[in-house]
Design brief:
nine-stranded mixed beta sheet; alpha/beta; TIM Barrel; 2 domains; two-stranded antiparallel sheet; Alpha-Beta Plaits; 11 helices
């Protein structure tokens, strides 16, 4: 039985595919998008999060850390993420629940038991299960086993992916996946590399290959002001998508609701001055995609 690392199972999700869904969030991602609203998903494995506003300055976390990763011992403590082994002793010791371990290693059977609790909702709404992240393709054996078990139970499956993986991994799960939610961030490779952390070449190549073997792909396009909202980029995105035969796009307007998570992880948020796209900008993006015969929906 395969095991993997997850950081959340979200029930009654209505933005990750058709119907009422259970979304399983797998940990680990090869990308580091500036606008990521789940930064705790990027690092594989268990991760320590600090809620500074809860800290009472007791110093208990400092006294129990076997790696010496916590210093200051005061209000709030200073955590060296490079030294932290993720043992969780500090979180167990904290009386104010200011320290939290994000992520846990579980078996595929554990996840399936959670999924099966919602079978009645899938049947009534035409929903199912969405595997998201992070990037689920980073845990291919775990993902494949979960997809196989869902298929055996006749549960509709969706995989939300950035497409940055070996083609063998992506093609290996294609026959087990009913719907792909495929992210396209930017068509310019240099901008993509600067704002996302990796080249877009593998992502675009994989999308073209996937479109030839899978008929149900929905593109997700995050609309981020100042990053990918210019007409030239949106037109290139629409041209590429329509060129590989895909006719469905969800525009996901940027929001900063995940900004506070960066502070809890001891990281800086790159887009503090970026605002949500205006209605005019969103409508213009919809218009451009529509010009290429693409059906557009705003939101998940």
């Amino acid at each position: 039985m395969a095991s993997g690392t997850i950081f959340n199972i979200q029930r009654y999700s209505i933005h990750d595919g058709p119907g009422i869904r259970t979304t399983v969030f797998l940990k680990g991602c090869p990308l580091s998008c500036w606008w990521c609203h789940n930064p705790e998903s990027q690092k594989y494995g268990v991760q320590l999060v600090l809620w500074k506003e809860r800290c009472i300055g007791c110093g208990g976390c400092n006294s129990v850390c076997p790696e010496g990763a916590i210093s200051g011992g005061g209000f709030p403590p200073v955590i060296d993420s490079e030294k932290c082994s993720g043992c969780g002793l500090c979180a167990e010791e904290c009386p104010a629940v200011a320290l939290e371990m994000v992520g846990k290693t579980v078996s595929s059977d554990y996840v399936m038991k959670e999924i099966e609790k919602d079978l009645i909702f899938y049947d009534q709404s035409g929903g199912g299960v969405t595997f998201s992240g992070g990037e689920p393709l980073m845990q291919p054996e775990f993902l494949a086993e979960l997809l196989e078990k869902c298929k055996a139970r006749d549960i509709h499956t969706a995989v939300d992916t950035c497409g940055y993986a070996n083609w063998e991994v992506l093609s290996g799960i294609a026959g087990l996946t009913d719907l792909f939610l495929y992210d396209i961030k930017h068509m310019d490779d240099l901008v993509h590399t600067r704002t996302v952390g990796v080249s877009n070449r593998i992502i675009l190549e994989n999308l073209g290959k996937l479109a030839r073997v899978h008929s149900n792909i929905l593109i997700r396009f995050p609309l981020v002001p100042g990053i990918n909202d210019d007409r030239a980029n949106i037109e290139k995105t629409a041209q590429f998508i329509s060129g590989v035969g895909i006719r469905e796009v969800n525009i996901l307007p940027y929001h900063n609701t995940g900004m506070d998570k960066y502070a809890r992880l001891g990281r800086n948020y790159r887009l503090t001055d970026t605002r949500e796209p205006s209605k005019e900008l969103t409508d213009k993006a919809c218009e451009i995609f529509s010009e290429y015969g693409i059906n557009v929906k705003i939101g998940g």
